[in-house]
Specification:
Layout lengths: L3 E4 L6 H10 L4 E5 L6 E2 L3 H12 L3 E8 L2 E3 L18 E5 H9 L9 H12 L2 E11 L7 H4 L9 H18 L21 E7 L6 H9 L7 E7 L6 H6 L7 E5 L6 H10 L7 E4 L5 E2 L4 H12 L3 E9 L5 E7 L9 H4 L10 E4 H7 L8 H12 L2 E12 L11 H31 L2
Parallel strand pairs: 1-2, 4-7, 8-9, 8-11, 9-10, 13-16
Antiparallel strand pairs: 2-6, 3-7, 4-5, 4-6, 11-15, 12-16, 13-14, 13-15
Helix pairs in contact: 1-3, 1-4, 3-4, 4-6, 13-14
Amino acid sequence: MERVKIFRPSSFATAEIRRIAAEADSDYTIIYTRPTELRFVNFGLERLVRVADDTAAAMIYSDHFDGDSPAPVIDYQAGSLRDDFDFGGVQMYRTSVLKEAVEGMDAEYDFAGLYDLRLRASRLGTIFHLNEFLYYELDEDKRDSGEKIFDYVNPRNRAVQIEMEKACTAHLKAVGAYLEPVFKDVDLSAGDFAYEASVVIPCKNRVRTIGDAIRSALSQKTDFKYNVIVVDDNSTDGTVEVIKSFLDDPKLIYIAQDKSYHAIGGNWNSALHHPSCGRFALQLDSDDLYSDENTVQKFVDAFREQNCAMVVGTYRITDFELNTIPPGVIDHKEWTPENGRNNALRINGLGAPRGFYTPLLRELNFPTTKYGEDYAVGLRVSREYRIGRIYDVMYNCRRWEDNSDHGLSIEKTNSNNFYKDRLRTIELSARIAANSVNQSGI
């Protein structure tokens, strides 16, 4: 009997995965997910089989070459729940695991069959990353990293995302991490605040855009007092001079960070703990703008009307000159009151702009990181509290060459993805523990 049999699925539907499982008759089954040629390095397939034997892995995958370029991938962990997790084209399953997983499939998907298989395999054994370059393939998607990040919210992919959410939710229930739509109440009258809201703008070396952001924030019309807190993290390009040119407006508060490490998360914490921070802290990135002068008012109204600890709005993707570019309006319709906080463990972001209830955030704080700090807080808040939604466009998200996610190397993309997977692993563990305590009554 052959040790390995290779299948190229015609689709990722459940029916196709069932067909593969029925025809699999070797020790291991490779599902090759790329349409291009697969070629192993000398003894690469033998090496993959040997390590699968040694580790007893349920599924194993490896680093590879994209054409002639090295294409390393990242380790799988419990929080690697993204349906777009990059395994490379080769997913090698222990055939006994493949068959057992398929036998348990109780939903028929058109798009999420392979995703469902991977989640089920992860419950039956280890998904093992062999960090050796064992084969050649060709990834035909050559788009920039800054374009790919919006795939999961592209309205054209909505039918796919609904299936992926269903599969992920079933997995969360199976591992004990699913949360019912029951939330803690928030006392929005707690604390003594001189300002009802603060627009928080963390920045570093944004001389071309910081002025636009500040003008957008200062021009808001509200029926309450608000201010704008700009936190500069040691800019060296003239950003500070632009900030200081607005200091004649009494609504502006300027925080100059010391030379220690802050990153975006630390800059947010400095704003949150400033004595003049408002009851609600509202996000505005230093290269973006609010869509009109009513955004701050809409935020506060939403907090009050929806009695929530965090609010997520809707944004429009634009170029530097604010012309709309694909995929256009991002409304995160996948965030539903019933299942949003469960689906948050699958998707790679919660949307923008974001607003936070300051007393709670002063307890939680942002992680001191340059990336994913907002996602970490959103996951933590959603564990216990309702997150409100605004479906009006509130924010213009500029895409330009200085975006933090533009033109990233594969190593940086991997680092970012690994960190968000780690955040999901932490949150997954916390939710499993909380459910265990609730069920035991301890």
